[in-house]
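Journal club side-thread
Mid-discussion, someone asked how the predicted structure for our own chain would compare to the paper's figures. Pasting it here so we can look after the session.
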Amino acid sequence: MIGMQGKVALVTGAARGVGARIAERLVEVGAKVVLTDISHAAGRAVADPLGESASYEPLDVTLEADWERAVDTVAATHGRLDVLVNNAAALHIGTIERTSPETFRRLQDVNTLGPFLGTRAVLSMMKAQQSGSIVHVCSIDGLIGMNGLSAYASSKWGLRGLAKSSALELGRDGIRVNTVCPAGGNQEMYGPWYEQLASIREETEAYSNNRGIPGSTPIESIVNAVLYLASDASANVTGIDLPVDGGTVAGRFMAGFNTL
């Protein structure tokens, strides 16, 4: 079992879904966790049952001042920060013609600028410690292309570029930077598109069923990957993209070929 005793972690987008479960698991394995989000009541509702090992801080990841305030609070409360999990994200599904420039910019701000600002904000503490792990929750849409996801995919490809460059830049300061690239995650993000997706159910089911391991990716598998990269178990791992996708990026499973 991965242990995080004595570690302090900050998790963005921790009010629901994958982010909430990451925070819970970090507490379970011994870490002190600061949960952050823009949904304050929901964030506190996740943090409160976790007891003294968890606290909630409001944080809009697109605002540099919010990052500075949140990290200052961590420094004042805990005196250190060992792990930053950049999990907060925004999704848009739509063709290029149906994606406004404003929507495109919003996704870049949340999904790419947010982790950049977060990385900048934690560097002073992590460099002073000569240690730290930054884990970006990316997506398989940052590894392979898909139609209808131009805004989202481009923001996640940008996040991977940020991760690789910063891994090289920060490794000599003892700071590791990696990405976890899941197939799916928080199903609530798909809410605005449920009706449209229901109308193409056959296609969406084929998308997940034609993987090496068919079906949806369990949240626990995503969380386990984040914990591995956050912990000392991955002490010599930096600059990688860890797909948690049932083999999606490996290729397409052709059922008929298993009979040949």
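Post-session note: The domain at 8-248 is CATH 3.40.50.720 (Rossmann fold).
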